[in-house]
Structure to design on (673 residues):
């Protein structure tokens, strides 16, 4: 008897690829990682250069700001200050000195804080990461959940309510939300400013968490709209994808079709947004930290701007840029794990 | 009564609600398929082929309404509750979709996608057993089993279509609906995929509904072929007869559009059909084909013709049937 058709066919089918290529391809090849790391390093170097010269071309005389008597300072005193600060040197020498110091982890001394820029930033880093990080995690999780639901049930009353509120919150400035929160909760259980209260009887961590509630809520209200709207629109794009019809044809329940098939595909744009925002965790929310007197990098930036405290600002800008670049690198390295198609590229 | 047929579609009508009014995509279609049988459904784009395929498992988009009866082993799919419908999907009838590129989920491995319906429909089958079966199915359709760990984009078009077929076989359904399974493939791969489907029908005794615009392919593979035009079957009969001597002018034009291999005359003078299929929202009066029909007479403008017996085992919807006056 002749061979069954399917078996015959298997033999005429395109020759099997060598088994070596069949091994699950490593998600991250050394080449890919090295390329991304190098690109980040180049970007960072570029930022260092721009960051340095940006402050040299800005109008205004730092010496005046630095002088205790401000604008009415004694001209001779100003010259003295300029010399102390190294502002009299040619630009290329200043730049070289800056790069050398940077290589040793020295960002100079803050004019206003009377301490090194590195330690000033180091002191404020943790509160900012705590505030922005918490807000980011909460808003990303809630926003993605909300966006997935509303996109899947496009046009439902829940969708219309959620989208309306999201757009309203998205278009409201964060300081306004902060002020509304401040005025409405004054005198209630949650403290309106600072990070700790020396009079508090609560244990340290709980006290911090307690202080965290309002500024964090303020940031979540702003961020959540972004996630829910982006997740909603990617869900809308995926909603009519043909593989979802396949999933339905298999007999999956509607919620499984959404969770197992639509969601992982719709997740990609929001993930990109999440990692981009992670970069901004470091720069924090300048307005929110100021409104709620949160002792983070945002407040520090606000104070430095009023000086202007040039070395501190320069250090802050560099830190913020480095944060964004680093998190972009992390996103680039994680993306192939989420979307297999990126691995082939 | 004898045992019910595998699939009986009776007076199926599908209407899409659109902003421009109701769109009747399918207007009273009757089809029958039995085990081990292959039914071809042919027609131009927009004639309602895919709507029929989707309606069989109630996979129409939300704005569509299907009426009539779709009897799957005697049970009306259109009247099932959701739970029963989900149980029937894929285990009683599976679909091989057109253009397998988009019908497979890009971020899940082939293996997970084949295993999914097995785990869903067959209680008591563990993940390991399901995976083993998936590997066997892949080998059976001519894809090496290590491909279970691959993602759809890593496969060629032909392999993806084979994966779709392996997936359709996962729960050993009695009926497979293949909607343009070979459309995006080159001729060699197309022949392989058709061979595969033909072999499955023969070996497993499956019923197959094969949907294609390519009448030549259908005539070659199918026991019976139904030609659709403007949401209705206009001619139905044995596959090879329909291709070689169609009765209905539309079916004849469709057959003439494909040159006969080995016949230089037909290759040099392929016959196209002028004009486009009518908009279902504003169908012409009488026979919907009459504006494009070379054999149209005055009666065609007013008289809507339904299928009538044309010869033993064949039927067609044309006023000329039985009048001898079919134009050449």
């Amino acid at each position: 008897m002749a061979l069954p058709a399917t078996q015959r066919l298997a033999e005429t089918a395109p020759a099997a690829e060598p088994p070596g290529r069949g091994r699950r391809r490593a998600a991250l090849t050394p080449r890919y990682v090295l390329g991304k790391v190098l690109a980040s390093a180049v970007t960072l170097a570029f930022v260092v250069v721009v960051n340095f010269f940006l402050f040299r071309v800005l109008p205004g005389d730092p010496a005046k700001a630095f002088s205790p008597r401000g604008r009415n300072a004694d001209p001779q005193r100003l010259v003295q200050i300029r010399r102390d600060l190294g502002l009299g040197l040619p630009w290329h020498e200043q730049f070289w000195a800056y790069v050398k110091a940077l290589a040793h982890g020295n960002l100079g001394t803050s004019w206003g804080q009377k301490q090194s820029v590195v330690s000033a930033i180091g002191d404020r880093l943790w509160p900012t990461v705590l505030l922005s990080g918490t807000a980011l995690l909460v808003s990303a999780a809630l926003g993605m959940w909300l966006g997935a639901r509303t996109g899947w049930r496009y046009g439902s009353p829940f969708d219309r309510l959620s989208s309306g509120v999201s757009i309203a919150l998205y278009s409201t400035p964060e300081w306004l939300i902060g002020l509304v929160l401040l005025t409405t909760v004054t005198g209630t259980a949650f403290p309106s400013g600072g990070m700790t209260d020396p009079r508090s009887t609560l244990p340290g961590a709980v006290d911090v968490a307690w202080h965290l509630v309002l500024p964090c809520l303020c940031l979540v209200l702003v961020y959540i709209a972004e996630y829910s709207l982006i997740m909603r629109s990617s869900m809308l794009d995926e909603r009519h994808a043909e593989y979802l019809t396949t999933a339905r044809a298999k007999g999956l329940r509607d919620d499984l079709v959404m969770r197992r098939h639509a969601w992982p595909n719709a997740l990609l744009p929001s993930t990109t947004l999440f990692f981009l925002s992670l970069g901004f965790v470091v720069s924090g929310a300048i307005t929110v930290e100021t409104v709620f007197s949160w002792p983070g990098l945002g407040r520090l930036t606000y104070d430095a701007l009023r000086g202007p405290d040039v070395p501190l600002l320069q250090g802050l800008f560099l830190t913020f840029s480095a944060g964004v670049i680093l998190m972009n690198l992390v996103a680039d390295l994680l993306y192939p794990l989420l979307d297999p198609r990126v691995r082939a590229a | 009564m004898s045992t019910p047929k595998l699939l009986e579609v009776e007076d199926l009508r599908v209407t899409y609600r659109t902003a421009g009014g109701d769109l009747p995509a399918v207007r009273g279609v009757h089809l029958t398929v039995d085990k081990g049988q292959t039914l071809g459904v042919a027609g131009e784009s927009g004639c309602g082929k895919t709507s029929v395929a989707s309606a069989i498992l109630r996979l129409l988009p939300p704005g569509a309404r299907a009426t009539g009866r779709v009897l799957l082993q005697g049970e009306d799919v259109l009247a099932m509750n959701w739970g029963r419908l989900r149980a029937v999907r894929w285990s009683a009838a599976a679909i091989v979709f057109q253009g397998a590129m988009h019908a497979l989920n890009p971020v899940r491995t082939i293996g997970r996608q084949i295993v999914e319906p097995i785990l869903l429909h067959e209680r008591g089958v563990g993940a390991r057993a399901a995976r083993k079966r998936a590997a066997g199915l892949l080998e059976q359709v001519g894809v090496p089993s290590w491909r279970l760990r691959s993602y759809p984009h890593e496969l060629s078009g032909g392999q993806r279509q084979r994966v779709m077929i392996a997936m359709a076989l996962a729960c050993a359904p009695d009926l497979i609906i293949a909607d343009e399974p070979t459309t995006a493939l080159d001729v060699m791969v197309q022949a392989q995929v058709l061979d595969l489907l033909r072999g499955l029908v023969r070996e497993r005794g499956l019923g197959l509904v094969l949907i294609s615009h390519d009448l030549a392919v259908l005539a070659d593979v199918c026991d019976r072929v139904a030609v659709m035009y403007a949401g209705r079957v206009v001619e139905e009969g044995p596959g090879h007869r329909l291709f070689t001597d169609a009765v209905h002018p539309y079916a004849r034009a469709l057959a003439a559009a494909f040159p006969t291999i080995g016949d230089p005359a037909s290759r040099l003078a392929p016959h196209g059909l002028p004009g486009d299929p009518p908009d279902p929202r504003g169908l012409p009066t009488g026979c919907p084909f009459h504006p494009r029909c070379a054999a149209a007479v005055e009666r065609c403008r007013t008289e809507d013709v339904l299928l009538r017996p044309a010869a033993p085992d064949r039927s067609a919807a044309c006023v000329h049937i039985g009048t001898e006056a079919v134009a050449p």
In short: Chain A touches chain B through 37 residues (CB under 8 Å). Residues 1-24 of chain A have pLDDT under 50 and may be disordered.
